[in-house]
Amino acid sequence: MYNINKDLANIFKKMAAIYEFLDDRFRAMAYQRAAHIIEDLPDDVRNYIATGKLYMIRGIGSSIASKIEEYVKTGKIQKYEELKKKVPEDFIELIDLPGFGPKTLKRIYEELGISTKEELVKALKDGRIEQLEGFGPKKVENMLKGLQMYEISKRRIILWEALQISKYLTEKLKKNLKEIHKIEVVGSTRRRKETIGDLDILVTADDKDRLKIMDFFTSLEEVSEVLVKGPKKSSVIMKFEGKERQVDLRIFKDEEWGAALQYFTGSKQHNIHLREIAKEKGLKINEYGVFKADTEEKVAGETEESVYKAVGMDWIPPELREDRGEIEAAMEHKLPELVELKDIKGDLHVHSTWSDGVVSIKDIVDFVRKNYRYEYIVITDHSKSQRVAHGLDEERLLEELKEIQLINKMAGLDFVKKGIEVDILLDGSLDLSDEVLSQLDWVVASVHSHFSRDNTDRIIKAMENPYVNAIGHPTGRLIGLREPYPVDMDAVIKAAKETGTALEINAQPRRMDIDEIWIRKAVENGVKLVISTDAHNLGNFAFMEIGVSIARRGWATKKDILNTGSWKEIQKFVNQKRKKFGVRAIK
DNA sequence: GCCGTTTTCGGCCCGACTGTTTTCAGTCG
């Protein structure tokens, strides 16, 4: 389905940039906020208009709401067309560059008559900008650097990569600096967003040790450039595997830890909302603590819990801090008890050497039993359509099932379950017979072809097969590489509920599929989810951690995730569907 | 432009660092 929300969000972001340029800060803020809200909406804005709920969204007032309606009706926003004429086109993009603020750009435009990026670069180099009052050589140098940095700052890294770099850096700092008391990577990494811009590291230490810590940090071998260096905050560019990332380090006192953690974990919208509420209660929150507004008396700040408690809220898990209703829920003590990694009892999507996995079933079992406290895993190799992946036909699948039986027998356990990742063909049928599928414990059905057509019909038809238990990576996206194929996920969620089919949260780092928006919607509709690694090698089993993170961001609790249950409970789910469709149950 | 158990007008998160200043504006997160 065509996504109008994103288009609207982009227009509002541009309007915000223009208002900033026009020195209308607060209007700019309002549009920026509206852009974020619309981007995050679980539903098409047209549905909000149809149900009259558009005006009820906090942050969307009558003016912006009418602009949304105007866009839906005419495909245009008159005000935006007018605004565009007031600002040189290139400047809308330039305002996002590091070192370029609205004031700077405005003066360059007004005093030098420069209106394109090209002219700007020329003026920076030939000294015209340096000669403006209040500008100097350093400022010009930073602006030139900003132009270069733009590409870096635009590229975001995926969560898994950010977590690996985070682990590496925190361990290195801890090991070399005994002066560090506490350390944590904050920002969007701690919130476990699917992609990350900069890395933010927070530490506590005694004041006298700050300099030493900053010296060590800014001279790490990975550092290619020091952007900012002070006693409390430093920013550097680091190179990891050839790719450049900005990393910030901030130092606090132990008694400020909770407030600093809360502050720098964000999100920005969450913090702004939190502060508004604090203000209403006569309190002030900053990164050093919670204070009484009148007397400046400190009332909290050593732990994050104390910060939230001071404003009358329960502690909010970082994954929820996006201002999507978590603050209201925390005030009413109604936050969900989110699923945790330790709740996971098994992996329902694993490939072996029978198709395109690189490890034998036997070795997978040994590894998982040694490293994970799982009660079961399901081997789900590819079916025959996946020729490049050596997909299995009926005959080879039956051979694989014999091997599984043998491995279980030799171990004296019933640890390995029989499954398949069966291809959904163009017409929605499956590329293995029901006869064979009926012998399996668990069937994942996935779309692996025809990514440009609308695949809603195929997926729904597959769910109507009594032996299909989950839809694998339902939207087919690859973060940063491939957009989701067209699919009406509302219809898919509805069909999942009706047929008793689960939706997969595929934990492969580039998939994260379904995403947090659809997870939340599935949860609200009572659809069961499974978190699976889709492992093709032994290292892949670790992806479960980020699969759980994304489920938490979608407000999923333990009961929403099928593989937090014992195998008996999963079998019950499978048999409920078989019963509904009047076919023989498995035992 | 948004919002409201102190408000329909008058606020809007707040502190660190930098560069160009000689006390601070601009930018950033």
Automatic annotation (TrEMBL):
Main location: cytoplasm
GO molecular function: exonuclease activity
Transmembrane segment boundaries: none
Pfam families: DNA_pol_B_palm, DNA_pol_B_thumb, HHH_5, HHH_8
Coiled-coil positions: none
Record EC number: 2.7.7.7, 4.2.99.18
UniProtKB keywords: DNA damage, DNA repair, DNA replication, DNA synthesis, DNA-directed DNA polymerase, Exonuclease, Hydrolase, Methylation, Nuclease, Nucleotidyltransferase, Sodium, Transferase, Ubl conjugation
Compartment(s) of residence: Cytoplasm
Substrates-to-products reaction catalysed: DNA(n) + a 2'-deoxyribonucleoside 5'-triphosphate = DNA(n+1) + diphosphate; a 5'-end 2'-deoxyribose-2'-deoxyribonucleotide-DNA = (2E,4S)-4-hydroxypenten-2-al-5-phosphate + a 5'-end 5'-phospho-2'-deoxyribonucleoside-DNA + H(+); 2'-deoxyribonucleotide-(2'-deoxyribose 5'-phosphate)-2'-deoxyribonucleotide-DNA = a 3'-end 2'-deoxyribonucleotide-(2,3-dehydro-2,3-deoxyribose 5'-phosphate)-DNA + a 5'-end 5'-phospho-2'-deoxyribonucleoside-DNA + H(+)
Residues in DNA-directed DNA polymerase X domain copies: 3-322
Cofactor(s) listed: Mg(2+)
Highest taxon of source: Bacteria
Gene3D superfamilies, sorted: 5' to 3' exonuclease, C-terminal subdomain, Beta Polymerase, domain 2, DNA polymerase beta, N-terminal domain-like, DNA polymerase, thumb domain, Metal-dependent hydrolases
Span of domain Helix-hairpin-helix DNA-binding motif class: 52-71, 92-111, 127-146
InterPro entries noted in UniProt: DNA-dir_DNA_pol_X, DNA_pol_B_palm_palm, DNA_pol_lamdba_lyase_dom_sf, DNA_Pol_thumb_sf, DNA_pol_X_beta-like, HHH_MUS81, Hlx-hairpin-Hlx_DNA-bd_motif, NT_sf
Domain Polymerase/histidinol phosphatase N-terminal positions: 346-426
Function recorded in the entry: Repair polymerase that plays a key role in base-excision repair. During this process, the damaged base is excised by specific DNA glycosylases, the DNA backbone is nicked at the abasic site by an apurinic/apyrimidic (AP) endonuclease, and POLB removes 5'-deoxyribose-phosphate from the preincised AP site acting as a 5'-deoxyribose-phosphate lyase (5'-dRP lyase); through its DNA polymerase activity, it adds one nucleotide to the 3' end of the arising single-nucleotide gap.
Protein name as catalogued: DNA polymerase beta
Gene that produces this protein: polX
